[in-house]
Design brief:
Chain lengths: 139, 83
């Protein structure tokens, strides 16, 4: 997956309320045994949840940042967010799909319909397309 | 890798909010909780945090250091948990 992110020119930052010391030991004691070489991206510490609060993911009762994921474009605009309660893990394939779709949209000015995958039909919004989407795209 | 040196306590950094916004009038009661500011289609809110980076050790990371690239920012509940 990290190769994929590299290919797309994406930098990944992970963040939890754990200290940087805990991140280090987690990397050394567990993550490096799950993934060869460990987690390759910076593991940030949001002690106190101040950053999580402004990103809307800090759970004050539990004192932790819940599972939130943000895609930020090169102009520093937030393009997408996904926030889950802790019990369910993310789907990295959907993350990659969304990044590819946003990169395509930025590069071409086209838009991507529901469920779009690279190589799939894209749409060029404009007066001529109104009421005619069915001609070029079906779910 | 150079030997890492680090003290026990370091300010966490935290959000970097433009002064004008941070000082916006909040009425007579000072709000305890920072309002959620992140929105899709709006500029990301910058922050600085200390990080652990494999091979580099403990380094400060600023979100805006990566301006100009696609960034994925992932929050998660905790190290040594299960999912």
């Amino acid at each position: 997956m990290n190769k994929e992110f590299k290919k797309l020119g994406v930098i990944v930052l992970s963040m939890s309320t754990d200290s940087r010391f805990v991140h280090k030991i987690w990397q050394e004691e567990e993550l490096s045994k799950m993934v060869e070489g460990g987690v390759p991206f910076p593991m940030l510490s949001d002690a106190g949840g101040k950053i999580g609060s402004i990103y809307g993911v800090y759970d004050e009762a539990a004192g932790v940042d819940i599972r939130g994921r943000f895609i930020i474009d090169p102009d520093f605009v937030i393009r997408a967010m996904e926030v889950l309660t802790p019990e369910v893990g993310r789907n990295p394939h959907e993350l990659v799909r969304q990044i590819k779709a946003f990169q395509h949209v930025v590069a071409t000015g086209e838009v991507t319909p529901s469920g779009w995958e690279p190589g799939g039909v894209t749409l060029n919004p404009g007066p001529d397309l109104v009421g005619k989407v069915w001609e070029v795209w079906k779910p | 890798m150079a030997k890492m040196k680090d003290g026990c306590v370091k300010p966490a950094g935290g959000p970097i909010i433009p002064a004008a916004e941070a000082q916006a009038p909040t009425g007579s009661v000072q709000k305890e909780v920072a309002p959620m500011l992140a929105k899709v289609g709006k500029e990301a809110i910058d922050f600085e945090a200390t990080a652990y980076v494999e091979g580099k050790g403990f380094v400060p990371v600023k979100l805006s250091d990566h301006k100009g690239r696609w960034i994925v920012l992932c929050f998660y509940p905790g190290d040594f948990t299960f999912v």
